[in-house]
Amino acid sequence: MTKSLREQTLKGQIPIHIAIIMDGNGRWAKEHSLPRVSGHKEGINSVREITRVCGEIGVKYLTLYTFSTENWNRPNAEVSALMKLLLKTINMEVKELHKNNVRFTTIGNLRQLPKS
Asked: Where would one find the signal peptide in this protein (predicted)?
């Protein structure tokens, strides 16, 4: 949680909507001498924690900008790994999301995403 959000929360000022641009997972992995996909996996852990905290403090809307159209220009192996990771994560988390009354929706052009 950022310092500003933490301060607002402590003052009882809970934002209604938080939007996060997910960026830097690949750079994080590189800095830790790990494959890029490891950075994306670590990003999932961050999203899980952010989602939990937002639910606990009463944030009504959380928007995650996760995959820009420019990402399709990455190497095929990386895009494929990201799509597999996306599907695996959604399948693993869907029960927990439902249990916590979290509604999952997508925004944008979905035509290139895996059908499943």
From this structure: none
